[in-house]
UniProtKB/TrEMBL annotation:
InterPro entries: Homeodomain-like_sf, HTH-type_TetR-like_transc_reg, HTH_TetR, MftR_C. This is TetR family transcriptional regulator. It comes from the Bacteria. Pfam families: TetR_C_14 (PF17754), TetR_N (PF00440). Residues 9-69 form the HTH tetR-type domain. Residues 32-51 bind DNA.
Amino acid sequence: MGLREMKKRQTRQAISDQATRLFLRHGFDRVTIADVAAAAQVAKMTVTNYFPRKEDLALDLHEDFTGLLADTVAERAPGESALAALRRGFLDAAARHDPVIGFSGPQFARMLTGSPALVARLREFHEEREDALAAVLAEETAAAPDDPLPRLVAAQLGAVHRVLFQETVRRTLDGEPDDQIAAALTRIGRRAFDLLAPSLSGYAVRPAAASR
């Protein structure tokens, strides 16, 4: 990484950190872009260059979130189906209390659910994630452009992850510790993926590597 790129990342991270601190202290809706710029000691335009929407200052894992399912499927092992890869990926994420699947802590969870703007933006994230997954499934299965099957499968898989995310936030707000939430998500997640297995266990299976 070059020095310029490193400085850009540091600036972006500093803006995000200051924004999160202000949002948690005062509430998302009461903090302005100007407040964030002042706290980060940068120009207001600098903030909007890195974060065009105020909501993305609070939901800073946009790319990780929206690309998670598509990346997991694209990187699946030979012989592994899309369903199996996503099941494995979710259970691994639950075990490490990954923020991308909802492990954010009670203070952040209250801020998130207490702001209609953030709730709406998060809904867009889920839709973008589903679209990205559908695109990868279409490519991996060589589906025709007018074939709705990749979108139908992505909708089912996306719905499971959306509900599990909501369950994580709900349990966080109820005061459950992360270890207890992870155990519950593991149990519920396995059941949810098992329900899809009869229809999807043979869909988008990566071909085994050719032997030499």
